């Protein structure tokens, strides 16, 4: 009796047919072992290369590539390539919108891949994240891909997608760590630079710091740094000036080039399509980029840069560094200009103080006492130095001369001309000439020593106590006001043209008698033209009634009354619209 071997029977029954043995390479064990191998490594290049080799070996193809999706550029980067001529690692391919829910073959394969002989494409995804593509060429046997082969490959890609995703995450973490390290390094560098920038206001040192930072950190050899000056130009606009330049001659930075750069409002890559009008010469010199440095919402400086010595493009983090560096340089340089301006301002203020001190010495600190007269004077400059002048000179025991003048303009030029007038008067006083002749001589000197646009209104007179007469000449000045004891009023207008208009002009004298109780007020237009906050002038129509009202008071009380009225009218303005000078003479 023959007893069949059950194991033998089972073996015979399960032994595959000869034409199916070729499918052994597609069994689940191969998929599992491959996924295990790939999952054991976090090296993205290793994972993709082995996945590609396995796919090519199992499907018997000679061309294959692994692509990674770049969501920022909506393109695919070649991560691994085998057997494909003309396609290199890191090449970028734009494939257009793809259907990633199924395998693509033949005409479904994007044309950009078909050009390289790719016949079969498997999407690689993990969860909802698109990772990339596995592209394979035709079988070297020239046969079509079987259904079992496609199912095997789809399962292999599906099971390996986790390994690819994990490796990609590790690569992204490495990049993030490198970027973080670079950021920390940049922050440390900027912190060190900020300390150095803030430690000095010397512009040459600041320029060296900027140059060394550009060369040391970014290997940039060519640069131009423009800054908008804190001072204003003739039309009130900020002046753009070149602070430092390297890699280009100074004569090449013409006003047209500088002004063209100053008009750049946003970061600009100087290329054929983006060259700002007027900056074409910079392209020829190898400059690549213009960065406007903004501060408090306005463009305060511009940094124009050449190419990096490494030949690499400027990266976003490097551009951020350049913005921060440019801002540091701008603020420090601006502070240096402000310090210079402050020093210059203090120097000018000191010079003006000395000028004011000298001018005060040229004018009497108080009017000399004279028998039969009660006098008071006031001089308030609208600036440090004044263009107004007054004087009182005793000629002898019986006569005294009073003078008052107003030079066109204000400040230093007017004060210098006033000093010239004072010197001229002091020279003429000892001479035995009439008051009208003295006025003519003064006019000649002023005309010969001043420009056509400089004039002096002038009034002077001599009081003689023997007959109480006041002999005067008015050279275009505000008429002195003589208020009689009874309240009547007389304006002293006789004379001639103001000084400095034309040499050789004749002058006429006037003579009035000052009886007891009469008040003579001599003043410059700073009194009558004092401005209210609303822009209204005080005017003679307010001065004359006030003088009449105050005529019974002392000279100082009359002067104080006028000053108080002007102060009230101008709302006690800290700066007068014009120099204010006044002399009050009362016969007693």
Would you mind describing this structure in some detail?
Strand 10 (287-295) and strand 11 (298-306) form a beta hairpin. Helices cover 39% and strands 24% of the residues. It is of the alpha+beta class and 588 residues long. The protein has 14 helices and 22 strands.
Count the beta strands. 22
Strand order of the largest sheet: 3-2-1-6-5-4
Q: What is the name of the CATH architecture of the largest domain?
A: 4-Layer Sandwich
> With helices defined by DSSP (H or I, 4 residues minimum), what is the helix count?
14
CATH topology of the largest domain: Phosphatase 2c, domain 1
Radius of gyration computed on alpha carbons: 48 Å
CATH top-level class of the largest domain: Alpha Beta
Percent strand equals 15-25%
Low-confidence stretches: 1-23
Alpha carbon gap, first and last residue: 173 Å
Biggest sheet record? 6 strands, antiparallel
Shape: rod-shaped
* Class from helix and strand fractions: alpha+beta
CATH superfamily of the largest domain: PPM-type phosphatase domain
| Overall average residue pLDDT | 83
> Number of domains in the coordinates?
3
Helix content: 25-40%
